[in-house]
Input
Amino acid sequence: MRETSYGLQSWIDRLNQSELPALAAVVQDLQRLTEQEHASVQQLADVLLRDAALTSKVLRVGNSSYYNPSQETIKTISRAIVMIGFDNVRLISLSVSLIDGLLDRTPRQQLQELLARSFHAAVQARNIAGYVLTKHEEEVFIAALLHEVGELAFWGCGGRQADELGEELAGGTDHDEAVEQVLGTSFRQLNLGLIKSWNIGELASFAHGSGNLRDPAAHSVNLGVRIGAAALNGWGCPEMGDLVRELADFGGISEADAMQQILASADEAVSVATTFGASRLCKLIPSTDPEQVQLQQAQRAASLLQPDLLVMQQAMQDLGMMAASRGDVGLILDALLKGLHQGAGLERVMLTVLADQQRSFRVKCVAGEQTQAWLEQFVLPVDPSGQSHIFSYVLRQRQPLWMGVPASNNLDELVTLPLRQQLGKGMFFIAPLMAGTREIGVLYADNRISGRALKHEQFIAFQRFTQLAGRCLDAFGKRN
Output
């Protein structure tokens, strides 16, 4: 396998020859059948029967309540074609092949997010097509599902270069510029190149051009793809309002009905992903439940949170000045939390202080999404021995810790079940806050909202801010 590819043709050759030859062959065989006016049941069955695993998965999906509400058992491909239709069996086969071809490879987060968006777009497009077309709805579904096939293949098979691009994008580099730099081509060109190479059909490439929207099928695909992308910014975002109006005009329905249709399609996309054996994608399809909508918006905002060196330096400078002169406790804590959250890019930060005659840890202040509940609910008994949980342990040991890495594995049992229930699972930073030799409390930070790994630079900043805040509080205590 070639380690590095650069330029459009280089990537198409690599994806076809080294990475995805089996998937490409199935896609091409299934597409050829659509171009034959009288493709037979046997021809479709022959394509599927070459792969026993694919056959069994298609039959499992065909027997699901989504496709087979009558629950009459389907045992053969030919029976599946009779029961649920030639086009549906082809659609299921292609979708299952795509999931198996890409998700079985220790999938990156970018791949899962894009595949979830593609499934959502496909269901939106098919249901939109239902307003304006009498047939070809399955073809519209497939065209929307494979609209970003080149980018999907890259995140699934790009190896070291996919890691490199992920790091560039996480660092805030311009998206298109970073893609061009790492791949030597754009995702748009790679999508179109693979669509052409795999002979996916005119509709998939046709829907890439905004000038082709006079064609109802292409317009349905294009609209579905844009709805899938806009939904990630929230159902109430300005782009979604424009798309609702466009759908209402296109389908000849009211805007209220158009919005209802879009939300119903989003719910249906979750069912489709589950039915096709990709339930892990469901949480990545925007929820229509109001509470979940709020949570997903918070997750998306947090995933975009990046360290800001200017904010971090300013917060450190402010704390340094307050350590040298009398600083108000409120201002000290504000600078501490701002520096960690907005400066170091830590998604959730919590300061617990010793309270109730030093018998418990109570939350003094928080920063970040999903932290307000801690202010009311988080109370932890102090254990003077430091043996019962991680908060008392770090206070006794007086050492900051990075939990969730091999070096701290021996302390995992100190992250007790009640703590996991309050804080979630995964990496976190934790440190004692000391004013000289006086114990103030414990500082906690994590990136649990987006699930991103914590970084060494963030741990260095976390330690530095803890020390500076301690110096400030020590100076404050000596002047009072």
About this structure: The beta strands are 348-355, 360-367, 379-381, 401-403, 428-435, 438-446.
